[in-house]
C-alpha cells in the first residue's frame, strides 16, 4: 500500500502528459466521464457508473413497452423487458453501478406490480399479495443485477525443466 502512495506523483505526471498529448490533437478529456475516486484502501481508481442520461433512456424505453402492452399478460411484458434489462446490466456491470442497479430494480418491480394490479383490477401494489420471490421465479422477471469486479489476468506458471 505504501508503494502505491510513494508513486502517486507518477499517476499525476502520466495524466498531465496525456492531457498535453491530447491537446496537440485538439482533443479534450470529458471530466464528467473520467472521474476518479479514492477506494477504501486509499488508491485512486476510475469511477465507472452509468450516466443519468443512459438510465433515463432505459427507463423511457421500458415505460414505452409497459404502456404499449398494457392489456397483455404479464408474462409477455416480462419477456419483452428482460432482454433489455439483461443487456443494459451486462454493459454497465463493471464498477460502482450497484446504486443505479438498485434504483432500476425497484422501478421495474413497481411497474410490473402496477401492471399486475391493473390486469386483476385490484388496489395497491400488492406488496403482501405478490412476493419478490414470486415476481422473480414463477413470473421470470430479470433479477441478476450483480456488479462484476474485473479480476487481474494471471499468467500460467512456467514449468521448470
Question: What does this protein structure show overall?
Answer:
- The protein has 161 residues and is mainly α.
- The chain has 2 domains: 2-46, no CATH class; 52-136, no CATH class.
- It is built from 6 helices and 2 strands.
- Strands 1-2 form a two-stranded antiparallel sheet.
- It starts with a helix and ends in a 25-residue tail after the last helix.
Rg, please? 22 Å
Oligomer: single chain
Fraction of residues in H or I helices: 40-55%
Structural classification:
mainly alpha
Largest beta-sheet characterization = 2 strands, antiparallel
Number of strands: 2
Number of DSSP helices?
6
Global shape: elongated
Q: H/E element string?
A: HHEEHHHH
Mean pLDDT: 83
- Cα(first) to Cα(last) distance is 35 Å
User: In percent terms, what proportion of residues is strand?
Assistant: under 5%
Low-confidence stretches: none
Q: Largest sheet, order of strands side by side?
A: 1-2
Estimate nothing, just give the exact number of structural domains: 2
List the helices and strands and how they pair.
Layout (H helix, E strand, L loop, with lengths): L1 H5 L1 H17 L11 E3 L5 E3 L5 H17 L5 H18 L6 H22 L12 H5 L25
Antiparallel strand pairs: 1-2
Helix pairs in contact: 3-4, 3-5, 4-5
Name some characteristics of this structure:
161 residues; mainly alpha; 2 domains; two-stranded antiparallel ribbon
Amino acid at each position: 500500500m505504501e508503494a502505491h502512495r510513494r508513486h502517486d506523483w507518477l499517476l499525476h505526471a502520466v495524466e498531465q502528459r496525456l492531457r498535453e498529448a491530447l491537446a496537440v490533437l485538439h482533443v479534450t478529456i470529458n471530466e464528467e466521464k473520467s472521474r476518479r475516486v479514492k477506494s477504501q484502501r486509499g488508491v485512486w481508481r476510475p469511477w465507472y457508473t452509468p450516466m443519468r442520461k443512459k438510465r433515463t433512456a432505459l427507463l423511457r424505453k421500458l415505460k414505452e413497452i409497459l404502456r404499449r402492452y398494457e392489456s397483455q399478460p404479464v408474462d409477455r411484458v416480462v419477456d419483452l423487458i428482460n432482454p433489455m434489462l439483461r443487456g443494459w446490466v451486462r454493459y454497465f456491470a463493471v464498477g460502482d453501478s450497484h446504486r443505479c442497479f438498485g434504483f432500476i430494480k425497484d422501478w421495474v418491480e413497481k411497474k410490473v406490480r402496477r401492471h399486475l394490479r391493473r390486469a386483476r383490477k385490484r388496489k395497491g401494489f400488492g406488496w403482501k399479495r405478490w412476493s419478490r420471490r414470486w415476481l422473480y421465479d414463477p413470473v421470470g422477471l430479470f433479477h441478476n443485477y450483480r456488479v462484476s469486479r474485473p479480476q487481474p489476468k494471471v499468467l500460467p506458471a512456467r514449468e521448470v525443466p
